[in-house]
Amino acid sequence: MSGGAVSGGAVSGRTPGEQTPGGWAGAQVAVLRELLGRPLTSYHLVLGCSALLLALGLMMVLSASSIEALQRTGNPFYWFVKQVTSVAIGLPLMWVCSRLPQRFFRLTGYPLMGLSVLGLLMVIFLGQELLGAQRWIVIGPFSVQPSEPAKLALVLWGADLLAARARGGRIEWRQLLIPLMPGVALLAVLVMIGRDLGTTFVLMMIFLALLWVVGAPVRLFGGILGLLALATATMIIAEPYRLRRLTGFLNPWETAQHEGFQSVQGLMAMGSGGWFGIGLGASRQKWNYLPHAESDFIFSIIGEELGLLGTLVVVALFGLLGYAGLRIAMRTRDPFVRLASAAATAWIAGQAVVNIGAVIGVFPVTGIPLPLVSYGGSALLPTLAALGMLLSFAKREPGAAEALAARGPGPAARALSWLGLNARAWRRPASPREAVRRTARPRTARVKTTREQPREHSRERPREHPRESRE
């Protein structure tokens, strides 16, 4: 048989009805690879995971806080309304950040760093102490936690500081010594003075992510981890309640009525949920058994009401969000985008790991909220701003701009066009004389006047030499 008569199926070596190697699983893997290889995959993952986690968080805050809110304020929706208010402020902030250029984020890091240091200093002198930590500044009916914007400030300031010193896309780790390490140390010391060990861990995670991206040597990692361990041990010894909390972590069931009470109640909530949970809103531990069920231990209420399946969905969403952030960092050549994306991803995903680990008994209880899910506007707003920044970076990935342009107008533009409020409707209406002129003589079929023709003819003719004309 000649080569031209061979069909496509014969060339591939399998009949049309034969399955590809790997069967159904191989086909699904191929489809997944095709989806992950699209230009806007990172953008859709960040947007979709953030929206799902935010919706789940609102639902669980309403469920977990309704009993305590009813007992304290007489209104079961008190904390839920405050959380909805924070979301209503945070979503426009996220949308604005998703449309801002990269230069804005590079310039914002320095003033935000200064404001964070000022806010942490104010906490030391004017802050309110709660549960052994001095974190909040109370202004009328509102309370602000300056350590939360300090995380975003460190991401932007540190990324711009290192990116400005990049040479050929590479950054020498020796440039970390000044002024990045003193700046991180200043933030960490101010936060530790306020006795907030959990936020100090998050700041160190951001710093370690910056070190990893710039390719710092292992000995530098070891030295920083050693200093962190020494500072942690000093803080635990200096504060008796932290030592009791560590004892409760090591032996929670032996101290179930004292230091280990919160951990034990959280584990009981997780265990009673089973595979599919006992039902949304049906939690028993939120009836004054589990402290801070709407914030630090909201993951326990998710496990109790939605079961193991619900907790796995939350873990999967944070995993996809972390993958999208790292994908943005890997697909760019800009040092600032790479550093800021990796640091923001380490902050959000790392904080989720610490919170979930504390709930299931892997880590000590540190009071770190679950991003996008736990109650608290001070933590929610900087997180949404960081996610908006990731969306802005994702729209500048290779091929993303072309894919966005090919997608056409968005839902808002289509809705305006349905109402007759498209871009043409907002143009200045033409005058009657102008409309008659456009109708009678369109620009595409413009007829030249007799006065214009000789002038053009004279311009198009080559200029004769004077001597030749005299001859």
Please give a structural write-up.
The protein has 471 residues and is mostly helical. The chain contains 19 helices and three strands. It has helices spanning 8-12, 23-36, 41-73, 78-98, 102-126, 147-163, 180-193, 197-214, 218-238, 240-250, 261-272, 298-330, 335-359, 377-394, 400-407, 411-418, 432-440, 452-460, 466-470, and strands spanning 128-130, 133-139, 142-144. A three-stranded antiparallel β-sheet has the order 1-2-3, with helices on one face. A hairpin with a 2-residue loop joins strand 1 (128-130) and strand 2. Helix 6 packs antiparallel against helix 7, helix 6 (147-163) runs antiparallel to helix 13 (335-359) and helix 8 (197-214) runs antiparallel to helix 9 (218-238). It is globular and about 55 Å long. The model is unreliable at 1-18, 423-432 and 438-471 (pLDDT under 50).
What keyword list fits this structure?
471 residues; mainly alpha; three-stranded antiparallel beta sheet; 19 helices; 65% helix; disordered N terminus; disordered C terminus
Give the rounded overall mean pLDDT.
Answer: 78
Structural class: mainly alpha
N-to-C order of helices and strands: HHHHHEEEHHHHHHHHHHHHHH
Q: What is the quaternary state of this protein?
A: single chain
Rg computed from alpha carbons, rounded to a whole number of angstroms: 30 Å
Shape: globular
- Which sequence of strands runs across the widest sheet? 1-2-3
Helicity range:
55-70%
Low-confidence stretches: 1-18, 423-432, 438-471
Distance between the termini: 80 Å
Counting H and I runs of at least 4 residues, what is the number of helices?
19
What's the story with the biggest beta sheet?
3 strands, antiparallel
Strands, count: 3
